[in-house]
Amino acid sequence: MNEFSRALVYLNDPFNWSRPSGITDLALEHLAISAVAVLAAAVLALPVGVALGTARRGAGLVVVLSNVSRAVPTLALLTLFAVSPIGFGNRATTIALAVFAVPPILTNTFVGFRGVDPEVREAARGMGMSRGQVLGRVELPLALPLVTTGIRTAAVQVVATAGLAALVGGGGLGRLINLGFGQQDYGVMIAGAILVAGLALLTEAVLALLSWAVTPGPRRLPFLQVSTPRSASPVPEPTASGVPL
Amino acid sequence: MTSLGARPLLDAVSDPPVGLLAVDEAPNPWFDPSYVTDNWDSILAYTGEHVRLTVLAVVIGAVIALPLALLARRSRLLSAPVLGLSTVVYTIPSLAMFALLVPFTGLSSNTVLVGLVAYSLVILVRNFLAGLQGVPADVREAARGMGLSPAQALWRVDLPLALPAFMAGLRIATVSTVALTTVGVLVGHGGLGQLITGGFAANFYRAEIVTGAVGCVLLTLLADILLAGVERALTPWARAVRA
User: Fold this and answer.
1) Where in the cell is it found (chain A) (predicted)?
2) Are B117 and B59 in contact (CB under 8 A)?
3) What mean pLDDT value characterizes chain B?
C-alpha cells in the first residue's frame, strides 16, 4: 500500500519526531493527559471501591454506573466537556477521560474486595490483626489481581480514548490522525494510527507486566492466561472489563 | 467590553473584540426543543444510519463469531490464537482502526462497518466461546449417546444451554457498538456522532451536541431492552424456574 509506505517514511524522519509539537511532544502530551486522568480516577474510585467492597454493599450502584458509562459514547462526553465553560483543551479532555476511567477501577476494586472469603477475614481478626492490618495484609493482597486489572483496563481505555480528543480540539497523538485526514495526507494519518495503536498496546503490555510484578503468590503472566481456558473460571470475570474504544 | 477602552485600535464597532468568540455573546442553551423539531429530518436520517451500522455490525459479527467459537472449542491449539488475537484487536483504539481502514475502503460507511464488525466479533467470540465451554461435558455425551447427530446436538443441546451467555455477549456487543459508531465521524459516517462533531464545528452549538449524545444513550437503552425481551422470549424455561 502506497499510504503505508508513506507512513513509514514519515515515521522514519527524525525531524518529525524532534521538532516542536512533533511526535515526541504529542506522545508526551498524550501520556501526560492519560496519566493525570487515570491517577485522578484512581484517587476517586479506589477508596469508594474498597469501602463498598469490604462492606459488601452498593452492588446495584456499581453495576448501574458501569452500564451507564458503557452507554454514553466517549466522543459525546469529550465534546460536552469541551463546550462547557471549562473550554476545550487538555483540561476538558483530562476531566472527561477521568470520568470514563472511574467505572472500570471502581467495579474491579469492588468485586475484588467483595470476593475476599469472609472466613479468611475472620481468621485474620482472630489472630489479633487490627482493622487496618486486615485490610492491608489480608484483603489487599487477595483483591490485588482484580484491582490491577481494573487500573490496567482503565489506563488502556484512557490512552485509546485520548486520541479522540483531537476530533474536538484536544491534543495528543490523535492530532496526527485528524491532521493527516484533514490535509488528505493519508501517510501522516496512518502514521498517527500506528502510533496511537502502538501506545495502547504498549500500555497494556507494560501494565500487565507491572501487575504481574506486584501480585503476590503464584502468578501467571496475563498474556499467558488466554492459553489456558480453564483458568478463566476460578477468577471472577470483572464486570466492566472495558469496551474497545 | 470594558477592555475596549484600553485598546483604541479595536474601537471600530464592526471589529470583533479580541479574545471573544461569538459563543460568548449569543445564547447557547444546552437543551433546545426547537432545534430538534426544526432538524427532525436530518436527525432521523443520522439515527437511521446509526441503527443500520449497529445492526449490520452485530449481525455480521455474530455470523462470523459462531463458527469461530465452535472451532475454538475443539482444541486449545485453536482457542489460544483466537483469544490472543481478539485481545490485540480489542486494544486497538477505534480512531486508529478506522484510520487504518481508510486506504482500503475509502470514505464510505463500509470503513466504519468493517471496524465495528471487528470489535463486535471480538466481543462475541469470547462470549460465545465462554457459553459453549459452559455446556457440561456429560450433557453433551448424553446427547451423543441418545443418537443425536453433531448438528442436532448443537441445535438442541449446546445452543439452548449456551443461550444466556450468547445473549449477554450480544447485549454487550450491541451497546458498545452503538457507542463506537460515533467515532465514524472521522470518515463522515458516524450516525448520531455527526451531530456531536457537527455541533462542535458549528461554533460549539450545544443543542446539537446534546441531541446527538442523548440520542445515542436512548438508542443504547432501546437496543438493550429489546435484546432483554428477546432473551426472555427465547428462554421460556428460565421463567418457569424463577416462578
Assistant:
1) Cell membrane; Membrane
2) no
3) 83
Cα dist from B150 to A32, B143, B146, whole Å: 54, 9, 11
The CA distance from B198 to B204, in Å, is 9
* Residue at A196 is within a domain: yes
Instruction: Give the pLDDT band of residue B170 (cuts 50, 70, 90).
Output: very high
Position B202 pLDDT exceeds 60: yes
Is residue A200 in some structural domain?
Answer: yes
Q: Do residues A171 and A34 lie in contact, with contact meaning Cβ atoms separated by under 8 Å?
A: no
Instruction: Select the residue of A178, A189, A196 nearest B102 (Cβ to Cβ).
Output: A189
Average pLDDT of A95-105? 89
* Domain around A75: 2-232
Question: What is the ipTM, given to two decimal places?
Answer: 0.75
- 8 Å CB contact of A160 and B100: no
Which chain B residues are closer than 8 Å to A178 by Cβ?
186
A243 located within any domain: no
CATH code reported for the domain at B38-232: 1.10.3720.10
B9-33 pLDDT per residue, tens: 444 444 445 555 555 566 777 887 8
Residue A29 pLDDT exceeds 80: yes
Cell (9 digits) for B64: 462470523
Is the separation of the CB atoms in A6 and A13 below 8 Å?
A: no
Amino acid identity of residue B201, one-letter, is A
Domain total in chain A: 1
The reported pLDDT for the residue numbered B26 is: 67
Tell whether A103 lies on the interface with B, counting CB pairs under 8 A.
Answer: no
**Contact (CB<8Å) A227/B76:** yes
With respect to residue A241, please indicate whether it lies within any of the assigned structural domains: no
